[in-house]
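Worked Example 4.2. Read the sequence first, then its structure tokens.
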Amino acid sequence: MRKLWLICVGLLFLGSCTSQSSKQSNDDSVNYDQVKADSLGIPRGNKLSTAMKRAMKWPQHDSSWFFEYKTMALKGDLAYEKGVVRRDPSSVYKIDGQYYVWYSKSVGPTQGFAGDIENDKVFPWDRCDIWYATSTDGITWKEQGMAVPRGPKGNYDDRSVFTVEIMHWKDKYYLCYQTMGALYTVRSKDAIGMAWSTSPDGPWTKTTKPVLKPADNGVWKGTEDNRFLVEKKGDFDSQKVHDPCIIPYKGKFYMYYKGERMGEEITWGGREIKQGVAIADNPLGPYVKSEYNPISNSGHEICVWPYRGGIASLVTTDGPEKNTVQWAPDGINFEIEASIPGAPHAIGLVRSSDTNEYPLAALKWGLTHTYNSYDYQSIIRFEAYHPTHHAAKGEVGSKGWKGNKEK
């Protein structure tokens, strides 16, 4: 009797496997696309693994979003200077024959949180002011001086103003940047400030209060200065709003920003960092956070540009989708278009009105920063290129740049 039962169970199991195999085969026939299969190297009649099923949904080898790049040192006043931090360059604008860039600047080494926080420097971007420089060729730069200083004691920006971006709209220039006030503790909450001018050389008029603040819905646990101890983590931007960049878009102003969360964790892609957008009718605000936030599951410094009615984004450093170029036809719902090996971070794009010619025209060249040491960083130049195929050493290959030819 037991032998008969085992035979029956075996037949049922075999039938189940046959049924599943048949079902899998039917699923394959539904998902099978012969053109895609040829491009992916899948022989006719093969079943599709889960990875290949995903690949069947990809665009047909669209390499126009893919790029590689090289970096080089700058000359003049933006060359590396020991004892000085210059980092997080803004977008670059060409105005009356000169390139302009704004950036964070501080001096001296970093002591961290272990010493006298009231007087020490806890990060390289602590105790910064915003400076600017000009160039005729994008390589040799002349530092022109301070653009936006820290605020007076007691102001929301009296500790540091840093990580700046620039927007030129009609007859005015708008700088948006991170701010830190008073003591810089690990539980401090950064906000975003703004200044405007009718000239790239200033003078700059600051807003009297932040234009964007962190969400106010997290709850710390206890009184210890520990940002990982929370009763409630809150929204993705419950501790900090960082790296702002404003894009005029669809008759409004979209401020893209990075959010850091109270009780931040390490996830399957590294740090728990996401990005959001806040929208205003006027460049100076008020900015209202989108109900779709967060709009990314990855990222760090914001790098966005308009392209064919939508917004493109270079997502770097943190999260499961780091080092990818993404595009959203509505500025909100982003899809991955390419994966970039070791993508440059903290990018200052050379803003151009002609970004519809080619998706990466805005990335032909620009500025980024490098860590000369933990204490000191300097601004460098990057140049991107578009490889069309892989070539071995000594073989004739092809790499160049499509689209915008402007230097």
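Now turn to a second chain, presented in exactly the same format:
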Amino acid sequence: MPDTVKKVVLAYSGGLDTSIILKWLQETYRCEVVTFTADLGQGEELAPAREKALLMGVKPENIFIEDLRETFVSDYVFPMFRANTVYEGQYLLGTSIARPLIAKAQIEIARKVGADAVCHGATGKGNDQVRFEIGYYSLEPDIRVIAPWREWNFKSREALLAFAEAHQIPIAKDKRGEAPFSVDANLLHSSSEGKILEDPAVEPPEFVHMRTMAPEAAPDRPFVFTMDFEKGDPVAIDGEALSPAVLLTSLNKFGHDNGVGRLDLVENRFVGMKSRGVYETPGGTILLAAHRGIESITLDRGAMHLKDALMPQYAELIYNGMWFTPEREMLQAAIDHSQAKVSGRVRVKLYKGNVSIIGRTSPLSLYDQDLVTFEEGKVAYDHRDAAGFIKLNALRLQVSARRDRRAESSAQR
């Protein structure tokens, strides 16, 4: 018999799996269920989630649907991109960065309605269970967490479908059997995993891709636009100021139309296994290139190189669900400080899956053409100074070489 739960807040998409979880919670825990559906720009109509929850006996006042798109981009996506964050050299963390916001919103609703538990629909093999639950415990240390995939006795997809039919839970025709792959989507990306994608030796079929056209089918002429940055964040496209979510939506459209942002990746999950995923991050791919472009003329070399050294640790923290941790906040403070003068404009060219930065300007630029020109510049730079610079940097190597030569001579005697 499970522990007594009075009221639980369920992260609810309105899909088959979370609808089954909703009914399972009602039957197993005999508790009041509160549903929370977050609009993170997944591109789905969310009104049906409310209707389905009502049909399953959830009280109207216990149904929460929140538009979190602007918060998602401004408070999670943009801070992450200030660090040029990439996990294992390629993945832009589209799924990972959404989980702390969902967890935070769930906890806030739990406090509001007086719930003593929260529930998610993540499986027992994936990363999301870790991300959700570490988020919950970080914000509400004594909250009860229910993870149905680790608790219930369903052994197969057929058993889940049988449960759904027995309780009159609507089943879409394409759900009657094994799904070809699973999908997670938000305003930053879409990810597809499982089933037909599990063999990493086999190229993903074209129909898997939902956010981008094939690069081969993209226009035969480049698409060029400008992006303005203020303190490390994008604020305008072609001179037009846009809110964070609207700006990312525009970049997604540009990326889609030019075949930008596809990734076929085998990654290392936090729980210990490797998994293959097909990711599409059109706007994020453009943003990463543009941000590095503006940093290239505004960020000091030492700060840039330190950021690049810290970034893998920062990326791993986000991937592993450690957003609400002291170490992530420490790194974020350093990253944000580095962005104080990262402002200006970049010109971006998209062409058949490629992103090129073809221009950079900033009133805070560190680029000095008089210093770097091959012609004699106005700024005093004495070429002879380089000789001492080189000798001092070579000194330790000279000492080592002389030692090795002495040792070699002694060995030959």
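Notes for the reader: The chain has three domains: 7-69+97-178, 183-299+341-361, 371-408. The first helix runs from residue 16 to 29.
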